[in-house]
Amino acid sequence: MNKTVRDFLLSVHPDSPDWVIHLGEMLHEGGAETNASMAASRASDFARIPEVGQGLQKIVEGLSDLRKVESLRLTPMQLETLQSIYAEMMIDFGKTIDKVANLK
Fold first, then answer.
1. Exposed, middle or buried, 34 (CB in 10 Å: 0-12/13-18/19+)?
2. pTM confidence score
3. Residue 55: pLDDT over 70
């Protein structure tokens, strides 16, 4: 039987918060990480900085929700709004990554 992300996390960190388990499962199921043990490890690593990990969880959840409705027809205004938010997120994300990288 294959071990799940939950199994890996709880065997190593029995007190893993629910959000860490959920993040690991989302990384695994969403295709960001195909190996369950590695998805668990990535999620567990974010437990050291909960604000970042929980923020990532929200992003992954949002992407998952958007994937569910991608086949729906969006109005031009909805599409423009999504594109605008996406562009702004990518700019902010790039700045944040650069800032963190420069702190090392």
1. exposed
2. 0.69
3. yes
